[in-house]
Structure formats: C-alpha cells, structure tokens
Amino acid sequence: MTIRLKPTRYIPFRKNDIIEMCLATAQWDEKQSERFRKFSQLLQSVFHYEFHQAQERLKDAYAPINPDADTREVKLTNIDNGPDFIDLLESLLDKANYEKVSDQDLQQALREESMFKIRLQVDFNEFSEVLLFCRGQSVRNETLVSWFGLRKRNISFTNYDRVVVYLKFRQDFDSSEYQLPVNRAGVTLLKLFQNVPKADLEMLFPNTRVRMRAMDKLLIGVPAVISGGIVITTKLGTTLVLLGSLIGYWIGVHQEPVELNKAVLIALLAGLGTLGAYLWKQVSNFRNRKLRFMQALTRNLYFKNLDNNAGVFLRLINDAEEEEAKEAILAYCFLMISDKAMTSAELDSEIESWFVEHWLTSIDFEVDDALQKLIRLQLVVPVDDKYSAVELEQALNRLDAQWDNYFISA
User: Fold this and answer.
1) For residue 10, what are the β-bridge partners?
2) Which of 51, 75, 205, 237 would bridge 321 by S-S if both were Cys, CB 3.0 to 4.6 A apart?
3) Whether residue 267 has pLDDT greater than 90
4) Which of 262, 292, 322 is a domain's end point?
5) Residue 64 reports pLDDT greater than 50
C-alpha cells in the first residue's frame, strides 16, 4: 500500500494519455479533436528542438568530467567551455520536477534504521561535492517475514520513486582501500535510482561500508561465548592443564618439571588445533554474515539502478521534455474550454481539482511555468491578471511559424 505524503509537481501520466484525458473532458467534435492532437504534436516538436539544444550544452559541459568517455580530448584555445555542468543539471532537474534533498533530510535518513537490517556507514569527507534530488515521495507499508516465516511484522517507511545522485571525489582522495575503478581522486559520478527507501539513502554511495549492528554482534557473540565455554571445559581441559604446568615451570612458580612425552605432545597439539579451529569458525561466521549483507545490498541495488553518468541526463532530458509538454497542453486545454478568461490561481485550482476528481491524483500543478511557456509561444493572451487561449487554428499557425524559424538562417 502506498500513501502520497504531499502533492508533487510531477504529473504521473504519459504525455499521450494527458492528451486523450483532455479530449475526454473537452468533448469536442472530431475535427476539433484532430486539431488539438495536431496542436499537441507541434507543441511537442517545439519543446523537443529546444531540449535538444539543452542536451548538446549538457554534453559539452559534461565531456571534461565524463568518467566513461571513449573519445580523445582536444585542447584548443578558441573552444568555449560554456556554463558549469552543475548549473545546467540543476536547471534540468527542476524542469523534470525533481526536488533537492536537503542536508536536514539526508542527515535524518542517515540516522534512521536501514530497511535491510544492516548498519551502513558513509564517509562524506571523501567527497568534494554531494548532491541528491528526488521525485515522488510516499509512505509505503510492507510486511517483513523472519524466523523462517514464523514472525511477521508490518512496517511503514518513506519511499522516493526516483533519486538522482551526483558525487565528486576529493582530489586528495586515497582509493587504495577500495580497489574499485570508480573510486578514485577527482572522479565524478552521476546515477539514477528508483524506489529507494529514505532510510537507505546511504546504500547509493560508492564508498558505503557495511557495519555490524549490536544485534548482529549478539547473535554471533553469545553463541560463540557459550560454545567456547563448552569447548574449553570438555575438549581443552587437558591442554590447559599442560600449558599451565609448562608456564608455571618456566616462570619458576613450581620446581617439578613437566615430562613432554609423545602422548603429552599429541594431547597438547590436539587441544591447540581444536582451539584454532574454533576461533577460525567464529571469524568465518562473522565474515559470512557480513558477506550475506553485502550480497543483499548488491542484489537490491542491481534492481534499483536505472542509469549511470551521461545516460542519466539523457534520460532526464526526456523526462523534462515530457513534463514541460504536459504542463503546457493542460494549461492551454483548460483555457480553451473555459467560457471566460482565468487568473493563474483559478487555472491552477481548476486543473488540480480535475486531477483529484477525475483521476484520483493529487498534484501541485506549476501554473506559472506553464503560462510562461504559452505566453512565450504566443498561444495565450494575458490581459491584466487574466489569461485566455488563442483559437486552435491560430495556435497551429503560430507553432508552425515558430518551427520554421528555427531553420531559417539569419
């Protein structure tokens, strides 16, 4: 079961579905409906061209820090590096309706108990830059099964639908203990994950270390102490007596020498071998339990990872383009079907109520952003503090002219 914590800017419907949802509400005739579909197609083409330009700027800005680059670097003095990659990335994430994870939320997540019942530790001092962005925050309920299915426990946790992580290792970072090609000085990492519990944000970092919880130490330590006592009293008694006698004779506590015949040596070696085997077993138990935790973490990350490095912002470009188009189509449609000009607050309320009443979805519609796009493309006419949409035929002509102007040389 999933419960949304609060309305988000993200519109959780496909672009083509939004078009059909608008048509179902407008109830236009076939000719008008076909014009609206054509309008939507042209509008998407305009946004696609504009986001293609944004994509090229991102690729240029990312090239110097791309850890997966397979092209040669060309150093020419007349090449302009352009805007900073982080600025472009944050602007893109905002258009894709992502929210920045604040330091307060991150620290709270680090304090919460992991969903995997393990303790994760991240050394943030190894990074010079750490940025996290999320989209879609909800409360989920799940049932955890333990003790071979005999124990079931219902839990609630905060979940992020999408999480983008941008990291940059320090220039003086010592990578010797990690032995991973991605963990090296100065390297930047960009990753996209899905369905991440807030309490497990630590698992998204490449320098995460697994630590034993107090409960895990007890589960290993208590049986070890009990079994160790049994081993000492039943199997090491003779060996301990012999060792005590030898040590006592060597330090001068008693004068009677210990006779080291073949039987005594065999008993002594057998006891020491038993002790060594017992200690090795306890160390192996600890290492095996830690290995199981690492396997669970790796397996979980395998299914949560959606994209890496350059692939992340290429996917985000598509997401941002979709969001921009959906917002503009919705705003234009509702202004079209309104019998009067509307203020931005009225339009915002109308669209948000429509989502709740007809589609059982609560969103925080970005009405100002949607109106700015439509005004820039001359598809909406502002009069005082109210807005009205131009007729579909006129809107088609203006979008067609806008598209042609992109390819007319100055």
Assistant:
1) none
2) 51
3) no
4) 292
5) yes
